[in-house]
Write a structure and sequence with these properties.
The complex is a heterodimer of chains A (about 220) and B (about 120). Chain A is about 35% helix and about 25% strand. Chain A has about 220 residues and is of the alpha/beta class. Chain A has one domain: P-loop containing nucleotide triphosphate hydrolases (Rossmann fold). With about 120 residues, chain B is an alpha+beta fold. Chain B folds into 2 domains: about 1-70 and about 110-125, hypothetical protein PF0899 fold, CATH 3.30.2320; about 70-105, no CATH class. In chain B, the strands form 3 sheets. A 3-stranded mixed β-sheet of chain B has the order 2-1-8, with helices on one face. A 3-stranded antiparallel β-sheet of chain B has the order 4-3-7, with no helix packed on it. In chain B, helix 1 (about 5-20) packs across helix 2. Chain B is elongated, with a radius of gyration of 18 Å. The chains are: A alpha/beta (about 220), B alpha+beta (about 120). The interface between A and B is large, with 34 and 45 residues. Strand 1 (about 1-10) of chain A pairs antiparallel with strand 8 of chain B, so a sheet runs across the interface. The complex binds guanosine-5'-triphosphate, magnesium ion and zinc ion (ZN) (4 copies). One zinc ion binds near residues 93, 94 and 125 of chain A.
Chain lengths: ~220, ~120
C-alpha cells in the first residue's frame, strides 16, 4: 500500500537570480565600480548610446554586451578601445545575473570605475531579472511607435531613467515624442525622462548628467 | 518569454523534494506566481506538461495560485497589497489603493514559488 503525504517545498525559483544579482553588486561595490544597465526595444539605440558615453566621458569603462546569438555589438564596442565581453543568451530573451557574474569575471575590474551592461533588445523579460546594477535605463525610440511606452508599463515602472531616442525621425514616422514622455511620467512619476537624437548629438549631455548624479 | 527555464526550475524543485521524501508518484503541485512575473501561466502549464512526461510527476495536477503585489506608496503612508489595473494589459499597472498614486515602491509580486506537493510513498 501507499500513503499520501502533503510536503512543503517553499522554493522560490527567482531566488537564485536575486542572490547572484546581490553578489554581483557586492563585487562591484568592493571595487568602487558604478554599474548601469541599458534595457530597451530592439534597435532603439542602446549600443550607440554605449559608444557615445565611452567617447564623451573620461570614465574607465568596461562593457558587457548581451546579444541573443551574435557578437556584433561587442565587436562595435571593441573599436572604442575599452574592455568588452559579449554575452550570448542563446535560447533566452534576456540577460540574467548568472551570465553577468561570469562576464564580470572576464573584465579587468581593478582598472575600471564604470561597468555598462547592454541587455538583449526586449521590453518584457528583463523586468524579471535584476543584474546587480545601480541604475537601470530603458531606451526606446520613436520608430517603435509612440504607443510603445504605454504598451509595456512594467519596465517603465521598474526602471530609473527612460531615454526616448531618434527624435530626429519623429515626424518622418508620424510619432509624437512628447506623448511618450507623458506616458512614461504617468506610469512612473519618479522616472527621469530624456529625449535624444544620438544621431544629431542631442540629449547625450543630459543622459551623462543623470548617470553622474546617480553615482554620487 | 522565459517560461522554459522557469518550468525547468519548478520541475527540479519538485523532483528534489519528491526524491528526498521517497515519493513514488507526485499527485499534485501548487505553484504561486507573482502577478508581476513576466510569464504567462497558460504557456508555463503547457511547457510543464511536455517536460514532465516520463517522470514521477507525469500525472500530477498542477495548481497555480496568484501572489498579490506588495507595495509602499510614496504619496501617502499606505503599505500593503496594490490595486492592479489590468484593463488592457496582461502585466498590470501598479496603483496605491488609498490614494490612486502610481508613485510606488514595488516590494514583491515577481516571484515564482513552488509551495507544496502531494506525493505517494510506500508505507514505512
Ligand atoms: N536617425 C537616428 N538613428 C539612430 C539614432 N540612434 C541610433 N540610430 C541608429 O539606429 C540603428 C540601431 O542602433 P543600435 O545602437 O545598434 O541599437 P540597439 O538598441 O543597440 O540594437 P540591438 O542591440 O540590436 O537591439 C543604428 O543604425 C543606429 O545608427 C538616432 O538618434 N537617430
Ligand atoms: Mg545593441
Ligand atoms: Zn556559472
Ligand atoms: Zn520573453
Ligand atoms: Zn526571458
Ligand atoms: Zn498612496
Amino acid at each position: 500500500m501507499h500513503q499520501v503525504a502533503d510536503v512543503e517545498v517553499a522554493k522560490n525559483i527567482m531566488d537564485a537570480n536575486k542572490r547572484l544579482a546581490d553578489k554581483n553588486l557586492k563585487n562591484l561595490e568592493e571595487k568602487d565600480i558604478f554599474c548601469v544597465d541599458f534595457v530597451g526595444a530592439i534597435g532603439s539605440g542602446k549600443t550607440t548610446l554605449v559608444e557615445e558615453i565611452i567617447d564623451n566621458t573620461d570614465y574607465k569603462i568596461g562593457v558587457l554586451a548581451g546579444d541573443v546569438i551574435s557578437k556584433f555589438d561587442a565587436g562595435r564596442i571593441e573599436k572604442h578601445n575599452v574592455p568588452v565581453v559579449g554575452l550570448n543568451t542563446g535560447k533566452e530573451c534576456h540577460l540574467d545575473a548568472h551570465l553577468v557574474g561570469h562576464g564580470l569575471e572576464d573584465l579587468p575590474l581593478d582598472d575600471l570605475d564604470m561597468v555598462i551592461i547592454e541587455n538583449v533588445g526586449n521590453l518584457i523579460c528583463p523586468v524579471d531579472f535584476d543584474l546587480g546594477s545601480h541604475l537601470r535605463i530603458v531606451v526606446v525610440s520613436v520608430t517603435e511607435g509612440d504607443d510603445t511606452v504605454e504598451k509595456h508599463p512594467i519596465i517603465f515602472q521598474t526602471s530609473d531613467v527612460v531615454v526616448i531616442n531618434k527624435v530626429d525621425l519623429a515626424s518622418a514616422v508620424g510619432a509624437d515624442a512628447d506623448k511618450m514622455v507623458a506616458d512614461a511620467q504617468r506610469l512612473n512619476p519618479n522616472i527621469k525622462v530624456i529625449k535624444s537624437s544620438l544621431k544629431e548629438g542631442t540629449g547625450l549631455d543630459e543622459i551623462i548628467k543623470v548617470i553622474e548624479e546617480a553615482m554620487n | 518569454m522565459h517560461e522554459l527555464s522557469m518550468a525547468q526550475g519548478i520541475i527540479n524543485a519538485v523532483l528534489e523534494t519528491a526524491q528526498a521524501n521517497n515519493a513514488t508518484d507526485v499527485n499534485e503541485v501548487t505553484v504561486e506566481v507573482g502577478r508581476l512575473a513576466m510569464i504567462n501561466p497558460e504557456q508555463l502549464e503547457f511547457i510543464l506538461e511536455v517536460l514532465i512526461e516520463n517522470t514521477i510527476m507525469e500525472d500530477a495536477k498542477i495548481i497555480f495560485e496568484e501572489i498579490p503585489v506588495e507595495m509602499d506608496c510614496n504619496d501617502c503612508d499606505f503599505h500593503g497589497d496594490a490595486i492592479l489595473d489590468d484593463s488592457d494589459h496582461y502585466a498590470p499597472l501598479v496603483k496605491c489603493p488609498e490614494c490612486g498614486s502610481l508613485s510606488v515602491e514595488i516590494l514583491n509580486g515577481k516571484d515564482i514559488v513552488v509551495k507544496n506537493i502531494v506525493i505517494e510513498k510506500p508505507d514505512d
